Every structure is written in structure tokens, then in C-alpha cells.
Amino acid sequence: MTQRIAADAGRGLGHLVVTVLDVLKEVLERQALRRLDAGTLTPDQVEALGQALIALELRFAEIRAALDGIPATEGAK
């Protein structure tokens, strides 16, 4: 029974981590869009920002997979 409690707690923590990551990604994407709309980025910066956001999404997907395939939360979008 102790193992089940630990496993349930681990899943709960995993869901929390995924939720925090999704919120963080949303904030970063919104900030990127604000900077794009403001025209404060050079074309090279736009490219670098796009690549960084893609890399971030890939890394977050790896983390989700490591946390037992927990999908992205819908509430953060």
C-alpha cells in the first residue's frame, strides 16, 4: 500500500510539472508574439526565437514522455 501512495504522489507531481511547463511555454509564446508585433526584432532574432520555441517544445515533450506520457494540459492554452 505504501508503494501505491508513492506512485500516486509521483503522478500528481508529474501532472504539476507538466502544467507548470505548459504555462511557462504559453507565457514565452505570448511574449514572443508581443515582440514580433512591436517590430523590435531583427529577422535573425525572429529566426532564433522561432528555433528556440521549437527546441523548447521538443524538450518539454521529452519531459512529458519521461513523466509517463502525461499529455499537455488543455487549461494552459
Automatic annotation (TrEMBL):
Keyword set, alphabetical order: Gas vesicle
Localization per record: Gas vesicle
InterPro entries xrefs: GvpK (IPR007805)
Chief location bin: other
Domain of life: Bacteria
Family: Belongs to the gas vesicle GvpK family.
Alphabetical list of PANTHER family matching this protein: PROTEIN GVPK 1
Protein name: Gas vesicle protein GvpK
